[in-house]
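Re: weekly structure request thread

Next one in the queue (348 aa):
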Amino acid sequence: MALQALARTLANAPAADALWGRDRLSVLAYHRVLPDGAVGTHDPDLVSATPQDFAAQMAYVARNFSVVSVWDLADHITDGTPLPQRPALITFDDGYVDNFEHALPVLREHDLPSVVFLATDFVDSTHVPWWDRLADIFARATPGTYELPMVGTVTLDGVDANRAARVRMLAELKAVGTDLIDPTLALAQEVLDVAPATPDRPLFMSWDQVTAAQRSGMDFQPHTVSHPILTRVDPDRARAEVAGSCARVTERTGRPCVAMAYPNGSYDDSVVEAGRDAGLVMAFTMELGPVRGRAISERAMVLPRVPISRRDDMCRFRLHVQGTTAAVFRAAALRTRRPTKRSKTLAT
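Done, posted below.
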């Protein structure tokens, strides 16, 4: 009950200011912005918002935060240039075409900068990433009981059961080497008797759309070349993925690369070093933000973000972006770790 009361109290900006400081950085992490009922090959859990919800969210952000660009943040980290109070950065991962079609018009309406982290091999391609292929396999599977690779026996008999099986396989595939992903998906397609996905239009932006979006205030930075989880590949490939993505983004946008988002938010010391060696001054995880102002430069290569989900109504969105969610999780963690009087007695 105490944590619930804390959540209600911190749902407003002044209370969040008191907890985190007015100089806290809130980095919003989006993937896709798609209408309800959108058809096509996609992982439904990567839909961060509908266009209508995104419009309401951006109106709220514009009223309550000072939205900065990736260049503003780079200047702060490298030169100490002050940020405005309540700074927020709006980010998108992967470079899906709906960022151009549905998110950009809303951002332009509010004159808000943003940054898209591009998996550069996906741009101007018909590529379907493995997580979307996985979602497509389960979406088109015939009901029944199957023996699937990595997850064993599953019964697919509705949306909830199919999603549960898909999420289990997704977690398993994220935990293995990238060379096992395609063979596992091929076997799953065979077992479920589902043909490969054939989208009727590209899932990702073209370079022409990148150019047009850049003219409208949307910046672009690297997200690796082919989107491997960098901690699941050898260090040489990780370095090549980061450096190659940086080179391609700079070539096509005419702007330097100063930031990246780690695929899946995953990093280790060698991954961070690969980013620094590529000349980046900041990188983003999927650890839960915001980050206090005094820690921005200290954590520049492992900055936390505020992930946004389609399941977030406006109330939950406010809790997330004001930092309430992170505060509650941290309070719960401290409460769990805090010894009870009985345990203290037993320890002495």
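The CA atoms of residues 66 and 84 lie 6 Å apart. The chain has a mean pLDDT of 91.
Next request, please.
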